[in-house]
Amino acid sequence: MLGQRLRSRFPLLIALLGLATAVLGYVFGLAHLQAAHAAFLGPSDLYGPRFIDVIVFGWCFWIGSSIGSFLNVVAWRMPRGESVNGRSYCPRCQTRLQARDNFPVFGWLMLGGRCRQCRLPISRRYPIVELVVGLSLTLIAIGQLYQLSLPYVTSRYGGGPLWQPIVDRYVLTTLFFHIYAVTISWAFALIRYDRNRIPARLVAWGIMPIILAMLVFPPLMIVSWRTLGDADLPSLFGSSLRIDAAIRIVTGLVAAAIIGRSLARGLCPRADLKLDPLGKSTARLVDVILIISVPGLIIGWQSVIALVVAASILAVLLQRFFLRQTDRLGSFAIAIPISLSVHLFAWWRLHDSPYWPSDTSQPMVVLAWAAIILLVPLWLKDAPEQPNLSGLAYADSTSDDDGEVDEDEAEVEAEVEAEVDRADDEEQEGGQRDETATA
């Protein structure tokens, strides 16, 4: 029993050991490396700043992975019409999870990937989503707190050994706005990964706050809806930032609709909003537009063109090596928040690149990327629509589309049979002991 418990905790011990090694290596290793190139600083002077970096990263990752844990609940319950309130529970025996078991990533490792009550396997999707979402949101937070990512920042602090995070009202407001937007993008992606439709309730709670925030606080739009060619033209609507923000919102949504319609040739070729507005293929088209609308609102209509191209390539790679249980639209949906997180982190450098479309790009650059969009359906093509995978992804207990039983299903069946055999053996042993006692 003790050996089995140690084996189940082995992944947790490895993770903690690796984490401790990474922290010590960063704090002491980087401090010594930076001190070697600083004339008036020693390693001991830099332990504090580097330890602050670790605290900032750890705090951001804990918040981000907790959001990922909540997104697991959203993706599981919302398509079923269930409330997202209430504590998490085991998808097999419905036992409510304890607080320590629900700790992002490490809770699953501590349990050895099994429910504490029924001891049946819990899908690996839970910690994977928490880890990936946590890393993507942490990437955004580090980029903005350390003044690494946003364009049009007048003062960029740091670059030296005493580099510190900058926290003020504008930085926090912008960071929370981007974190919320990427969270909504992840929610859309996880639901579409299961081949479920994006619920209207999630769309209302996701898209509308982004639009209202940009209208109330226009600096959140970061970049203009204009391009270099018309930057010096007088505005037809005056100089109101809120009017510019409104146009920025409209252009972002229109760009999402146009790009989504272009991708429909590969992802949902039978979609027709006029002749078949309630069809499955049309519903997929609506989801494609919704998925693209989030980055369209956040980074503008110019940059979203290139982001979709990059995400389409990433989607092919993800499905080839990692996301084989979903369709091409599901892998594309997952690629969008990943690409958006990277774009937000590298926005400053991408914005300054003459080859990346932005509000300062030449019109020919934008047109060139728009032409590439027309080629995306050549590699971003989907097979005929399949049933949703939400039960398989979370509970690993649903048969595959081909009627065969996969490895996870076989593992679950073996576990159930083992539990039944163990119960029968204990019952027989109890009966033998009773007979002996009676004799």
From TrEMBL:
Q: Does the keyword Membrane apply?
A: yes
Q: Which InterPro entries match?
A: Prepilin_pept_A24_N, Prepilin_peptidase/N-MTase
Q: Membrane-spanning regions, if any?
A: 54-75, 128-150, 170-190, 202-225, 245-264, 285-301, 307-323, 330-350, 362-380
- Please provide the Gene Ontology terms (biological process) for this protein: signal peptide processing
Q: Which GO terms describe its cellular component?
A: plasma membrane
Domain Prepilin peptidase A24 N-terminal, which positions? 63-141
Keywords assigned by UniProt? Membrane, Transmembrane, Transmembrane helix
Query: Region Disordered: what ranges?
Result: 391-439
**What are the Acidic residues biased-composition ranges?**
398-429
**One Gene Ontology MF term:** aspartic-type endopeptidase activity
Q: Does the keyword Membrane apply?
A: yes
Task: List the Pfam families.
Answer: A24_N_bact
Record field: compositional bias (Basic and acidic residues): 430-439
- PANTHER family attached here? PREPILIN LEADER PEPTIDASE_N-METHYLTRANSFERASE-RELATED (PTHR30487:SF0), TYPE 4 PREPILIN-LIKE PROTEINS LEADER PEPTIDE-PROCESSING ENZYME (PTHR30487)
Q: What is this protein called?
A: Leader peptidase PppA
Q: Which gene encodes it?
A: pppA
